[in-house]
Amino acid sequence: MEPKKDSSVKAMVPFKALQNVVKPALEDAFGITLAANIVMVARNKSGAPVVGMGKDDYLRLIEAICQDERVIQMWGQAGTRSRLLKWQEAVEE
């Protein structure tokens, strides 16, 4: 069964989704410096480019973010999964 989409989330291009949805959530939980480190480590693991990120790159990046042990420890498995689903919905089809 496919999860219900959150109609309050507006789809956007991958870079804007990262900047406007993912990073603010990480910064609220971890602070600016640690959030930036989590994204940087996830970029290295996922191979997502800094410039010219496509949808597949974005999806690999957020998956890597959600596999980071610090993220799982902060939000738990269920909270991390919930955010991953929200972040997936944030990017345009």
What would your notes on this structure say?
With 93 residues, the protein is mostly helical. It has one domain (14-44, 53-89). Helix content is 71%, strand content 0%. It has 4 helices and no strands. The longest helix is centred in the C-terminal third of the chain and has 21 residues, at 69-89. 24% of the residues are buried.
Helix and strand layout, with pairings?
Layout: H1 14-30, H2 32-46, H3 55-67, H4 69-89
Helix pairs in contact: 1-2, 1-3, 2-3, 3-4
Q: What labels would you give this structure?
A:
single chain, 93 residues, mainly alpha, 71% helix, globular, disordered N terminus
Brief write-up:
With 93 residues, the protein is mostly helical. Helix content is 71%, strand content 0%.
Number of strands: 0
Radius of gyration: 12 Å
Q: Outline the biggest β-sheet.
A: none
Q: Please mark out the parts with pLDDT under 50 across 5 or more consecutive residues, or reply none.
A: 1-7
Helix content: over 70%
Overall body shape: globular
Domain count: 1
Structural class: mainly alpha
- End-to-end C-alpha gap: 20 Å
